[in-house]
Amino acid sequence: MSTIRNIAGVIIAAVLFIAYMSYFVVDERQKMIVQRVGEISRIVDAPGLYFKLPFLETVTPVEDRIILWESNDRPVQDKASQVYIVDAITLARISDARRFRETLGADLDQAETRVGALLDAALRQTYGLRSFDEVLSSDRLTMMKEIKEKVEKEAADLGIDIVDVRIRRTDLDGAVLQSTHERMRSERNALAAQTRSTGEAYKTRMNAETDRLFIEKTADARRRAEVIRGEGDAERNRIFAEAFQQDPDFFAFYRSLQAYSKALANKDTTLVLNPDSEFFRYFGGESKDQEQVPAPKQ
Question: Tens of pLDDT along 86-109?
């Protein structure tokens, strides 16, 4: 009886072991490659519970999610042989599990190495066709597109689909960074000197134009002033002439008062004249040839 129990236990254990070896579970994040005696018999890419032949079939999981591979500190050169240090990332997915198994043994480490080599070649080709200004300008989107297309074409033969390639950093190598800064500084200094020269020329031209306008306007103002002054003198002479015609004696008296005012304006003025001089004809007494001045006409 004990022997029968032992045999039954062994049979049950063997059945359980065979049952355990006969199924596998596919997660939604992966695919399964089912191989029979080393040959791929089928690819299972839908999640669920599946069965296989124990001992004859084996399963190899393959990542079905998007994989991120980093490529840091990659040295590349532009067409002027200036060296840059580039950081890039690659987003990829296993699109053909059969080909991925046949070419890379379904090994993600080998896949990262191969795709990294393809990326290095694409970076060198793309940067090598561009100048310094193009590398550091907004042309980077076009560059990333070109790099992706180059890597994508080669990676398809490995069963890998390149989702995207992004350049995170592009820096000049330390050996050429200082010389590049000096060149950029010289260019900016030359541009500043040119700008200052243009400004000085404009300033000189504006000053000359201002001086010319000042001289022209001053001359015109003086001419107009002389014309107005001449017109004023003419009008004054006309008025004096009319006054003289209306009353010559009063006009003579008025002119004498003006002469007194001008001659005696300074209190320190000393005049040595004959009392009978014509200059004093309106001071008090009458000269021997002077007649009484009539009253002004109303």
Answer: 999 999 999 888 888 888 888 889
pLDDT at residue 68, as a whole number: 94
Query: Residue type for 107, please?
Result: D
Query: Would you say how long the chain is, in residues?
Result: 298
Task: Give the 3-state secondary structure of 227-239.
Answer: HHHHHHHHHHHHH
- In whole angstroms, give the CA distance from residue 244 to residue 69: 116
Tokens of 257: 């008062």
36 token code pair? 């029979």
Give every CB contact of residue 245 below 8 A, 6+ residues apart in sequence: none
Distance CA 208, CA 290 (A): 66
DSSP state of 41: E
DSSP E strands, 78-189: 83-94, 160-172
88 contacts 119 by C-beta, under 8 angstroms: yes
Residue 48, classed as helix, strand or coil, is strand
What whole-number distance in Å separates Cα of residue 252 and Cα of residue 218?
40
The rounded mean pLDDT for the chain is 81
User: What distance lies between CA 173 and its chain's CA centroid?
Assistant: 24
Pairing of β 67-77 and β 57-63: unpaired
List the one residue out of 67, 81, 78, 84 whose CA is nearest residue 168: 84
Rg (CA), the chain: 57
